[in-house]
Structures are given as C-alpha cells and as structure tokens.
Fold this protein.
Amino acid sequence: MSSARNSTWRNWGGNVSARPAREVAPASVEELAAEVRRAAEDGLKVKAVGTGHSFTSIAATDGVLIRPRLLTGIRGVDREAMTVTVEAGTPLKRLNAALAREGLSLTNMGDIMEQTVSGATSTGTHGTGRESASIAAQIRGLELVTADGSVLTCSEKENPEVFAAARIGLGALGVVTAITFAVEPLFLLTAREEPMPFDRVIAEFDQLWAENEHFEFYWFPHTGNTNTKRNNRSAGPERPVGRLAGWFEDEFLSNGVFQVAQWVGRAAPATVPAIARVSSKALSARTYTDIPYQVFTSPRRVRFVEMEYAVPRAALADTLRELRTMVDRSRLRVSFPVEVRTAPADDITLSTASGRDSAYIAVHMFRGTPYQAYFTAAERILTAHEGRPHWGKVHTRDAAYFSGVYPRFAEFTALRDRLDPERLFQNDYLRRVLGA
C-alpha cells in the first residue's frame, strides 16, 4: 500500500480542491478496512475518490482520502449467471475492453469512460436509453466496507435494503470495494448521427424516443440547430468509423477545433453566437456500426464544468423551450452545447430516475469561463419542473429540497444513520445534500 501526506487533490474540472491529512492506496480489501478503522481511531473522516470526474465536492475531505488505484481488475466472470465481478478502482474503459475480449458487454453506458466503476455508479452516471437504464441499474451485487471496518456483501437477496441504496450511495454508506454487473453477449450497434432543427426535435421528441433504443441530441445555444444521435442494435456487418474520418470528426473537429473555439469565446464573449452557428453546422450526418463501447463512448479532451438535472420525461419539451427563451433574452454567451438524454424509471433509492421516466438536460461551460450566472438561471428553470440534479455535477440543492423530490429520501437517511451513525464518511457536500 502506498500513502502520502498533505498534497493537494483537485478534480478533473479544476473547480474543487482539498488537502487531505493523508492519502492512501490500499492494495486489498483487508488493507482498506484497516485504514477505515485507523481513521476512526485518529478522529479523521474518510472519503474515497476515483478519477475525480465529479464537479461537486462529493469526494473532497481534509481527513483520509482513499485512492483505489491498486484495487483494479476483474475478479471473475460467471457465464451461467451472465455477470462480471470487478474491483472498485477499475476504470470503465478497462472494463469495457476486457469484456469485449471475453465476447461480453454491459447493456448501456455513459459517453465518458475515464471514471472508475465505483465512482461512476456511486454518483449515478448514465447514458441514454428507452428501456436500458444507468450503469448502477446494471449492478447485481456489491461489496462495501462500512464505518466499523466490516465488509458487507449486498444483492437483492443479501442485505437487500442496503443494495437498494448503495448502488448509488454517494460515498455516504461506506467504501465500495467490488461490483458485480449484469453482462450480455457482445452485440453491435448502428449509430446514426445527423443535424436536425431544434423545433423539429422538440415537436417529434416522443416519436424519436419511442422509435430508437438510445436517442440523444445536442442543442447549440444561440442557434436553432441540434445534432441528433440514434443508437440501435444491428445484425451487422461491422462498419466502424474510418480512422481518418474518425480522427477528423472526433479529434480534429470535436476536440481540436472545438478547443480553439472555446479559447476564442472565453477571450471574446461577443463572438460566441457566431462561433455557435459555425460549430453547429460543422458535423455532417454519418452512420456507422461497431461494438457498444466504441459507439456509446467518445473522447472528451476539452475540459468543462457541468450542471445536469433529470426532469420527468413528459416535461422535457417545456423545460427546453424555457431554457432557450432564457438564453435568448439574456446577455449570456454560451459556447458549449446542451446535452439531452433519457432513462427509464428504476428502483434505486436516490437514482435521479428513481420511480419516474426521466429526461436529462446538461448545461456546460468551458473550464475557466464564469458559469454561475448561466447555471443559476438554468437551475431556476430545472427546479421548477421538480428536477433532480446529478450527484456529481454542479448544483445548489440541499436536503430539504431532496426530501421533496425523492419519495424515498428518508429511507436512505435512515439507512445512513444505521450504517454510519458517527458520520465517518461525512464531508461538507454530504452534510448539505443529506443533512447532518
């Protein structure tokens, strides 16, 4: 096990930093449990952090920061049960590649795969899907080190009340050390990407959602343009994006030129609407067929800060129209597209899709650009529709708000009282969102 003292930790977005008393990287579940017990004896709080892809201070601590970088790899594949058990610190990109080599895949995933499996699931990371839900909804079992240093295994049959909550546990119930995911035989997806006017997408949204297994779109503020993406299962053959075309569209345009456009927009905000009109027309229609993680995920090299809310799916059109009107009437200059995705209702206590079919609206700003005015105005609209913020993205909500939008909120806090009565896993963020 490696450890360090008093170095500054920063998240990926650069908007959160912390100075933990010590940083530890346990090489086994036993070492991790011992570190939890030692922290309690020393009167220090404990937080685990993966790659820091959250924009909130959910992982920040001045106590003991646990880095799971040595807890990686696949523990085992059960082909009869069609599950894979993986160590908590394994990056999603390594899991996806390892599963593909085994001829297996997760059913659905988000578009970023830098996160660790425990960080991604604990904050509710999701992709888009008509029937298939978040990464956490694909969990069939998990292993958790609780505040007293004991190791708890949870599933629908074993500790089911913990399982219901700990799949998206916010780090409040313990430290996740291993996760068992449902998997299926590797399949092919055909992706169809094409520009579409904003008004048409909004008018036809219900139909586009119903006709596609995975539908999402990006709206470019200051324009009436969107880029849509439909992913559906395919019998093949594989027709991946060509290497040159892939480099041009995914690296040169989506990362290189986009990065330069963000720099220009940050330096001269007045240019943003003109840049947005050009950017929104830069990507042309394309269709390709590949294995799931090559279709679902994409490189994100342009750093940003993000807020995302889940609203009832039926409220999407009204919410987006209000967001567009707000931007048009304001002096805001928004250089990043707004991302829209969906998820079916699930049964996880604090999932943003818990108990209701949801649509996700994500607003972004380039790292280093003032984002408060835009996010505050957007949040006012999103909360008016009983929005639930992503646990790992910027928001200003507190426990009083969450108790109103999550019917099972008290169920989660009661479980936390039982598993962590001394608040070993407490930090400022959890104090705000869950209460003392």
Residues 119 and 304 are 19 Å apart (CA to CA).
